Every structure is written in C-alpha cells, then in structure tokens.
What we know:
The protein is 22% helix and 48% strand. It has 11 helices and 30 strands. Strand 27 and strand 28 form a beta hairpin. Helix 5 crosses helix 6 and helix 10 (575-593) runs antiparallel to helix 11.
Amino acid sequence: MNKAVRIILTVLVVIILAVAALIAYVMLAIDPNSYRPQLESAAREQGVELHIDGDLGWRLLPTIAIQLGETRFESEIHGIKPSSVKEVNLAVGWRELLRKRIAIKALAIDNADIHLTSSDQAAAIAAVPATGDEPVATDNKAFSLGVEKFSIANSRASLEEDGKTTLLSNINLRTSDVSLSGDQFPLSISLEYQGDSDEQLIKLDLAASLSLDQQAGKLLASNSTITVDGLMAERIKLDFNADINVESQSGRFTDLTANLGKTTLTGNGAYRHSLPRSLQLSLQGTELNTADLLAEDVATDSADNSEAAVEAEATNLLAAIFAPLAILEGGTGKIDLTMDKVIHDGMELSSPRLAMDAQGNRLTISEFSSGIFGGTVKATAVVINSATPRVTFSKQLNNIDLASAFAQFAEDVDITGTLTMTTDGETRGTDSDALLNNLKASGDLQVDNPVLATINIEQQYCDLAALVENSPKRSEPWPRGTRLDKLASRFRIDKGTLYLDDYSTAIGNLKLRGDGEILLEEQAFNINVITRLEGDRTSTAGCAVKSTRVRDKDIPLVCQDSFASAGARSCKPDPVFMNSLIQNEVIDKIREKTDLDDEKVEKLEGLLRGFLGGKKDK
C-alpha cells in the first residue's frame, strides 16, 4: 500500500471518528424531551392543543432530526376535531446543536389523520409554518423555529359538514425555501378526493412557483399546473398564473389554459371569495365532444335507462345553470364562453356562444347563439333561483332542418321542411316534467317546403269528392305523403300541449287552414283541416272536381293519431259534414228519380233531415 493511500484512509477514519464523536456528544449532551414544553407551547400560541404521547428521540439519516412518535392535536378555533400524526421529524441545524440549542430547519409529517368541521379551514392541512426571514425563538435562543423545508406524506383529512363527509387521502405536500417577503419558492401537492362513499375517486396534483409577500398581503403563482383524474373520462389539465390578494381573498387569473381530453380552453378570469363575492370569466374553446368527457360507466347507464338519463340530463342542466349562483352566494358574476363546436349525443352546435350575468338569485343569459340542424338558434333568458326556479325566455330559430331535428328529439315524427320560428315564454320547476307541464309560450312559425311523410291529405279530399261525383276509381296509386306549400301559423304552448291557432297552407289549388293541438309528451296530434278547392283540379298529380257541392266550399277533415302510428287512416272527413253531404245527395236523387212536386219533396226532405239530424243545404 503506497503512502498516499494510507494518508487518505487515515483522514477518512479521523473524519468518521469525529462525526461519531459529534453525534455521541449531541445525543448525550442534549435530551430532545426537554423541548417538549416548548413545542406544545408554540402550538398553543397558534390555537392548537398539542399532546406528544411518546418520547422524543434522535434520527440520524438522511439528516439529523428530532423524531416525534404518536402525536395528538385539536383546535376549536381552526375547526379541527381530535386528530393525530403517526410520525413527525424536525430536522435541526448542526451549528446550533454544538451550542446546545435546537434550531428546527425542516418539518416532515408522515401519516397524519386530520378531522375538520369547517370547509373554510380545509386549507389547514396544507398550511406551511413559514416564519419569514427571522426564525421564531424563545427568549434565551435555546429553541428556534425557522422552517426552510416542509413536507406531508401518506396523510388523510376528512371534512364533516352539513351532514356530508368529504375525504382527502394520500395527501403528499412538499415545499422549501418558504419566504414571506416575496421571494419565490416551489410547492407541490398531490391528493385523492372522494365525497360520499358512492362517489367517484378523484386524483388531484398541483405544482406551482409561489411568491408570498406577507406585508403586502400578496400571493403570486406562476407556472402553475393542476391535473385532475377521475372527474371525467379524460384527464383535466389546467395551466395558469395568478395574482391573489390574501386579505380580500380575491385574485386575477391570466394565461389560463385548460385541456379536457381533446378540447382546449384559453382565457382569463377574476374571483373574489370575500362577501360580496364576484366572478368574471372569459373563455374560448376548440371542439368539445361531451361523450369524451363522460365516464364509461355513466355513458353505459345512460344508454341502458334512457328515461332516467333524460331526467338526469334536465337536472344536470339546472345544476349547471345555477352553479354560478351557488358559488357567488348572492354576489355578482359575468361569464362569456365561445366554442368552435360542441357535440352532444350526436347533436352538433357550431360556433356556440354563451354570455350570462349573475346577481343575487337572478341569472340573465344575455345571449345564447349557435348553428344547429343546418340553421341557427338565438335565445335570451332570465332565471330566478328560488324554491321553485322560474325561467322567462325569448327564442328565434332560423332555417332549421326538421328532418334532422326530429331525428334527434322525436324519431316518430316523420315531417320534413325548413322551420323559422320566434317565441316568448316562461316556465317553472325543478325537473323536466315540471318544466314541461308549466311551460307557457306563444309565437309565430313558418315551414318552407313541408312534407308529411305518412299522411296524404289530397287523397282524402279526392276520395270524398269521388263519393259525390261517383267518379271511377283512380288507376294510379296515391303517393304515401303530402307535399305542402309554405305553412304559416300562430301557436301557443300550455301545459305540455302545442296549439296551432290559425295555420294556413296549400296543395296546388287546394287551400288548407285550421287549428289543432299537438301533445308533446304523448307525441300525438289532433288537427282540424278545412279544405277549399279554388279551381277545377287540386293539383297536376291530384284529381279533377266538377261538383259545386265540393268546389269552392269549406270541407272539413279531422286528422287524429299518434306520430308513431300515423298513416292513411289518420285523416278522415268530419262526420257532421259527411252526414249533411249524404243527405243532400239522397234528396237530389229523390228529386231526380221521382215525379214528386217541389212541395212534397220539401216535406220529404224535412222528414229525412229530422231523422238524420242534418240541416238544409243553402
């Protein structure tokens, strides 16, 4: 062994012996249990009752620290019920130890079980005992607290409030170089969240660079990232910068970017938590498909139970509308959201925009606009949140393709055309049934190129005319449906029924008008159709009519059926009119075939009409 190697080994041995001697000195000269009163007193000054059950001991690796075993604590002021920590390590400074002083430089908490009674104190689990530039110390400097590093690991917290238990588990928190004078320091938090026991487990991670100026009451967060797993099928990732006023509990959020699966939202916002609360949020987004956001089991349940899914969707819609009001607790808010496209259950909204303002219990939707079913929709609404929510609204639909709309909302309705409509209305209720039953609205509608695919009104009219004229049976089969000219009508909606008050349309020379009702929930109709032929032929593909008993007269038809079973027999001549028509034909035949004079024919006509209940044809 050469001389250099022997010298190096000798130095190493000396160092090891010196360190061992130093450790032995510290462990023998300083009893950490003597600082138990200072630790409990320091906690008591912060409103926390601390009880260290076991002995305090030394931990040598990875750094020298005082180790606390089972520790119990509670705080009425901070809303902390009896809680416990399995292990606490207080890393101390070497220089102070050599002077028989304890200077705590780092605090590591492992396996804490915290029980909270107030959501306002929920942040206590992440409280960092930052002491600023000057450590907190006893008068004789024998004990000082100047935490440079702080961590929580493998811990849990529960919040019991309003009869509901919220659980935070697997809490891990790390920070270092904490400063209260504005210098930046890192913070990372990960945890799992669960509300009620049957709710989905949600995982949350936060990483940020913080700057806290205690004197100015300012907290700056830069390069902040929050990721959430389990809330939706896709991971949610939120990047932002924040400027927070700690005293007023308010802040501005800039450079906001949210990624929800394939969807990206960008924008900015501001929020004040202290009363009166306020919220401003402006977001622009790319394409959003709600199917990508729903958890797989939720989507399956919805497919298996469509009626329950519709009810849940209506409830979720109300919850989404009232969410800003719930957050604001009577304050004010303004939200402006635009998207490139939204796809929901096969329905596409192109370039939708939602602008709404909240104040107290009143939510005003100043604009909802979107492209839909080949046309556009524009709407405004006022929602009053109360025991029974009330809604007033105005809506405009332009150039809506009815085939696409009915395929989405009412598959049994086989009507095509292009709808333009204006309506004003109001409703109230807490679920879809109540909202539909209490809906009252009125407006005007127009349908261009309407086609009734399962009912041929022209055929019904021509069959009736053939009875009068004794025409030969038509050789060509009638088409199944009816192609109408432009249809226009006033309408009302009341208690789940749509009333057509005065509609008008035509099939060539055959004019149609009338009124009727459509039962929205039952998907059925009862329409009165008054036909009037202005000419000698209904249409080029229809029938010729010569009888003056039919031409230029109001001939009523009644169309009554469900949309699911509507067909050739859904429209029939009005029974009263048919009775009168038959009577007139019989009397005409009597006049034609007998030699009775007019007086006798008139008496016979009176007897016949009295027996059949008809009236004399004028």
